């Protein structure tokens, strides 16, 4: 069926422009109000919506059935399944696809394409037809608290090439890709969940770095682009965030760059918008600026207030009806195309990950794990016990979530027949907890510390613990950075340093094989850590061959 904006009432048109979330495993009253009463065009899933894969598939089917019975227009069902450390689904039967920086370290366009195809097939089997990925931010700020390993790296050309391959993989398999966060969130030091960031560079620099991956994504036909709640004075001198700037969304993205797909806002409940403008006003301004879809992820009262405010803004003439019609036309066209593609592509329910896929993902992990330095500590002595200090996330943040299952580097070593004893600590250790960890590793001659940094710099407790361990005599000390490669900036004197970019099972297994000398790590740094360890550095390539 072909849907047109002319067939819809004003209320239905505005509803189509909203993508909203709710907190339930089944269509609760919140979901029913969104779909049946406000006739929203899309739903966004979070981890709160996932218990099992069959449950999630049933939820998607029930929501689509509700939309069909209400207004006969299917929903965009979206999710942030970036891979690596940002994955709403990590349950049995789903492939734990790698994140961007791990893929950036491997540097393979083909790997990115295949990973996206795997992810898309699984998402579509669960009823998800839009992924808020890939991140095309160029992470050239080591202290970026919100992008980090979500980026392919700091080289704009590499980010563009790997991102284009991911987009192709997702969209060939029937899932709309969403390039984010336009015009670029990589060179910021503020988390836009918590406040407003600014990128002060001139247009020449923005064209060459921040904008370049998005320009290439547009050339490759990306379905959607998500906005950043970040200010770009060179484009918008009034200091408005990009999400609310007509100069950015219409002048730059639509007119100058020629983007014809959907412009989707990042969530308006993030403080950079909600605290400064309020969500209803933010929704009006985002649409005035040129956004097609407004994302309000959590709160029903804010969602309904924003939809109502936009309807009133159209009635009052503040938002032209022609702009609403153009946006809805783009939304309906994408839905029609996705529906046609979905009918042509086979859907296989996700029951288990094939052995072929598991092997591919393990091989990709080996190509990405990066040995940065080694002062003759490798390989470990497999016949000797190893203490593995493993930091665990005890408190979720806006950029970090606890996984549904725990798999440690110790688990990976034990699966290789090594006596590896986990010493579990929090990511933010107190002095008392540091002393407890030091007591726990007494008597071990081989100690591996897995560091974990989800924000801008290594937590002080982890830093202190590694420094104290470095003072011990007669031990082999190895640090494995299981997320942020920049941890070495805070630990310059560690003798051996390995980067995995994520603490997911395939990367822990690859790291275990590197530690035991069974695997030669193939990765190169996708970001520069220092003058000593620049972009593209690998101990194997730069030192071991000398």
Automatic annotation (TrEMBL):
The keyword NADP does not apply. The keyword Hydrolase applies. Residues 9-333 form the Glycoside hydrolase family 3 N-terminal domain. GO terms for biological process: carbohydrate metabolic process; peptidoglycan turnover. Residues 370-531 form the Glycoside hydrolase family 3 C-terminal domain. GO terms for molecular function: hydrolase activity, hydrolyzing O-glycosyl compounds. SUPFAM superfamilies: (Trans)glycosidases (SSF51445), Beta-D-glucan exohydrolase, C-terminal domain (SSF52279). Pfam families: Glyco_hydro_3, Glyco_hydro_3_C. Keywords: Glycosidase, Hydrolase. PANTHER family: BETA-HEXOSAMINIDASE-RELATED, GLYCOSIDE HYDROLASE FAMILY 3 DOMAIN PROTEIN. Belongs to the glycosyl hydrolase 3 family. This is Glycoside hydrolase. It comes from Paenibacillus ihbetae.
């Amino acid at each position: 069926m072909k849907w047109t904006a002319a067939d819809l009432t004003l209320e239905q048109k505005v509803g189509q422009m909203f993508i909203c979330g709710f907190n339930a495993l089944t269509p609760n009253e919140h979901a029913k109000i969104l779909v049946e009463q406000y006739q929203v065009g899309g739903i966004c899933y979070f981890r709160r919506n996932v218990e099992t894969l069959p449950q999630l598939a049933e939820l998607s089917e029930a929501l689509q059935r509700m939309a069909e019975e209400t207004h006969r227009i299917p929903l965009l069902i979206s999710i942030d399944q970036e891979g690596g450390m940002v994955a709403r689904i990590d349950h049995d039967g789903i492939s734990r696809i790698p994140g961007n920086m791990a893929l950036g370290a491997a540097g393979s366009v083909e790997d990115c394409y295949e990973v996206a195809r795997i992810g898309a097939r699984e998402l579509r089997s669960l009823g998800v037809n839009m992924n808020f990925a890939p991140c095309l931010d160029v992470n050239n700020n080591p202290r970026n608290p919100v992008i980090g390993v979500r980026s392919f790296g700091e080289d704009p050309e590499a980010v563009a090439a790997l991102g284009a391959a991911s987009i192709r993989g997702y969209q060939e398999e029937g899932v709309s890709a969403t390039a984010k966060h336009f015009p670029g969130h990589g060179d910021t030091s503020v988390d836009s969940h918590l406040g407003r960031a600014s990128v002060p560079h001139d247009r020449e620099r923005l064209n060459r770095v921040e904008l370049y991956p998005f320009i290439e994504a547009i050339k490759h036909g990306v379905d959607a682009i998500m906005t950043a709640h970040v200010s770009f004075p060179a484009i918008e001198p009034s200091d408005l965030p990009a999400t609310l700037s007509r100069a950015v969304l219409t002048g730059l993205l639509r007119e100058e760059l020629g983007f014809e797909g959907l412009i989707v806002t990042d969530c308006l409940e993030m403080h950079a918008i909600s605290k400064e403008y309020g969500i209803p006003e933010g929704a009006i301004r985002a649409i005035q600026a040129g956004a097609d879809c407004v994302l309000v992820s959590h709160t029903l009262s804010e969602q309904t207030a924003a939809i109502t405010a936009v309807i009133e803004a159209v009635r009052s003439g503040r938002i032209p009806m022609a702009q609403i019609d153009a946006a809805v036309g783009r939304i309906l066209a994408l839905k029609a195309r996705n529906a046609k593609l979905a009918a042509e592509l086979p859907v296989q329910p996700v029951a288990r990950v094939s052995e072929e896929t598991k092997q591919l993902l393990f091989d990709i992990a080996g190509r990405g794990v990066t040995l940065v330095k080694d002062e003759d500590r490798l390989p470990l002595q497999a016949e000797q016990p190893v203490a593995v200090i493993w930091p665990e996330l005890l408190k979720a943040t806006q950029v970090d979530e606890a996984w549904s299952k725990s798999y440690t580097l110790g688990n990976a070593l034990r699966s290789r027949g090594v006596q590896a004893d986990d010493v579990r600590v929090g990511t933010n250790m107190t002095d008392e907890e540091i002393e407890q960890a030091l007591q726990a590793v007494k008597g071990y001659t081989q100690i591996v510390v897995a560091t974990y940094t989800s924000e801008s710099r290594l937590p002080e407790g982890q830093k202190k613990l590694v420094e104290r361990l470095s003072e011990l005599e007669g031990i082999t000390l190895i640090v494995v950075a299981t997320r942020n490669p920049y941890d070495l900036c805070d630990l310059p004197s560690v003798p051996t340093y390995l980067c995995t970019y994520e603490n997911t099972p395939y990367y822990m297994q690859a790291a275990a094989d590197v530690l035991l000398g069974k695997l030669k790590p193939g990765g190169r740094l996708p970001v520069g850590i220092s003058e000593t360890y620049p972009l593209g550095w690998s101990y194997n390539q730069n030192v071991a061959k000398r």
